[in-house]
Amino acid sequence: MSTQELVYFIDLGGTLVFAISGWLAASKKQMDPFGASVIAFITAVGGGTLRDLLIGSQPVGWMVDQNYLLMIAGGIGLGFLFKRYLEKLRKTMFLFDSIGIGLFTILGIEKTLSFGLTPVIAVMMGTVSAVFGGVLRDTLANEVPLIFRQEIYATACLTGGILFLVLGQFNVNVDVRIILTVIYIIALRIVSVKYKWSFPTIK
Amino acid sequence: MSTQELVYFIDLGGTLVFAISGWLAASKKQMDPFGASVIAFITAVGGGTLRDLLIGSQPVGWMVDQNYLLMIAGGIGLGFLFKRYLEKLRKTMFLFDSIGIGLFTILGIEKTLSFGLTPVIAVMMGTVSAVFGGVLRDTLANEVPLIFRQEIYATACLTGGILFLVLGQFNVNVDVRIILTVIYIIALRIVSVKYKWSFPTIK
Amino acid sequence: MSTQELVYFIDLGGTLVFAISGWLAASKKQMDPFGASVIAFITAVGGGTLRDLLIGSQPVGWMVDQNYLLMIAGGIGLGFLFKRYLEKLRKTMFLFDSIGIGLFTILGIEKTLSFGLTPVIAVMMGTVSAVFGGVLRDTLANEVPLIFRQEIYATACLTGGILFLVLGQFNVNVDVRIILTVIYIIALRIVSVKYKWSFPTIK
Fold first, then answer.
1. Transmembrane residues, as ranges (chains A, B, C) (predicted)?
2. Which residue of A34, A52, A53, A80 is the best one to mutate when testing the B interface, meaning the one whose CB has the most B CBs within 10 A?
3. Residue A10 and residue A103 in contact, taking contact as beta carbons nearer than 8 Å
């Protein structure tokens, strides 16, 4: 399997995980299945959609590749069938979510660079790809978005994205860069949650 | 009058009705006329604008055909002059609103297909065209959006859109397909309101 | 210095001022520096971004000219270092903010016209350029957006934009048109605040 294929498959996996997390967030708020499906969908595609609009890649990604819709349908189905079980899998979901944001960050960077934009913009768009779906999910489920709360969520994507680009300057193999970036993001999130790292608020 | 012209005129009519509904929603919240006009405008064009952005049809529709702005101005004027009277016309407004979402669904489907996208995406974009303006209206007027509450609103558009496409497979004349789809959506909404149909919430 | 250069430099100045105002709004809400930076960024680029998406100018403006990012970084830095001092400079900030919305209005109009759209659409897009960043700032900081409250904010942009176009019909020199429009907007805002002008709410 080539790196391209690997990234594509894991991208689909990230879409699945985000759809599940959107469904679970919605079902906690006693929505009906239709509303919950809408939120699962928006959580899964929100970040990539905003990125595509800003850089001008239209029709947006999930419109031109049906596999994304299938992944979202699968995520909704799994959320519906295994809701109780999945909610217990907190650590597994946290792990998948971290892998998801890591890969969405990298994909967002690569796509933005392919449009001839600068690395700074690419890191910003990578982060947007990774976190904006979650922001919409939290907003629609009437919670203060995660990135405006204590956890170092977006920061992990931003610094992970910079790591990915810096490693590229040293000609590190792309597979290795992807793995190191994802490991970095997972590690930073675990450590920050464990030690309750957070920025101080502005005085 | 050709089918094209008919659809165009009824699209303008839908824009008018949505502008009125936005104005009425805003005026209940004691906004000033400027804020209410903004909400009327957003209600009328919100759905089509999101659709156009996602499929990449820019400048968005209402920018390149002045008649849409005239319809919105007319809706605001009617809302201003006949507020009390229109609020009593609940059933008439419900009927117009149903015709409006039916036609917006069909127009959204046709436009999306003309961009070479799949029927599944087209039905989704048809629904977005029909319901997103109302979602923005409810959000801006600080109410929980209608589609996240009990009424079978978006479902009517989704299934109506599928009906429209399926009838097309059987070579049904397009005028007949439009009429049947709109009748279906009106009937489903009336029946669902009358019998208080709703999805159960997720347990 | 040519008019082009002048407008460009003042546009950068407007970006700086909006970034500061976003930071100050966020810091009142006890956000962490990351969240406050995001809000400063969105305040500064929000209006121009929505305008660019609607007219189809992508990648959006701040992605293709790094100076905008530098201005925003500068605004965040100034907000961080001189928060207490800047909050006392209410009148100066009000003046800069008025100059900012005036120039954003004019720039939005010129850019929209250059896409072959009508003057009516251009004035609307000018106003969107000027006010939408502030709407997002207020929404994210959980306040009712300024334009939905009493102050005649958006109206100043709308009428100022019309003034700018009308003066153009009389072949007034563009430098003079810019200065007159900005003076008009500043004057209208000062007078409307002083005499507590506001639209009556709809009865």
1. 6-26, 38-56, 68-86, 115-140, 152-172, 178-197
2. A34
3. yes
Q: Which of C155, C198, C202 sits opposite B27 (nearest CB)?
A: C202
Kindly indicate whether the ipTM for this predicted assembly is greater than 0.90, answering yes or no.
no
Where along chain A do its domains lie?
Answer: 3-194
Are C32 and A121 a contacting pair at CB < 8 A? Answer: no
Spatial contact of A137 and A29, defined as CB atoms under 8 Å apart? no
Cβ neighbours of C64 (radius 10 Å) = 14
State whether B118 and A66 contact (CB < 8 Å). yes
Per-residue DSSP letters for C33-98? HHHHHHHHHHHHHHHHHHHHHHHT--S-HHHH-HHHHHHHHHHHHHHHHHHHHHHH-HHHHHHHHH
- What is the residue whose two structure tokens read 């660019």? C52
Separation between Cα atoms, residue B200 and residue A31, nearest integer Å: 8
Are C134 and C43 in contact, with CB atoms under 8 Å apart?
yes
The residue ranges of chain B whose pLDDT is under 50 are none
Q: Which partners does chain A have (≥3 C-beta pairs < 8 Å)?
A: B, C
Could you report the per-residue pLDDT of C86-105, keeping only the tens digit for each?
A: 878 777 778 878 888 888 99
Alpha-carbon distance B30 to nearest alpha carbon in chain C (angstroms):
5
C81 touches chain A (CB under 8 A): no
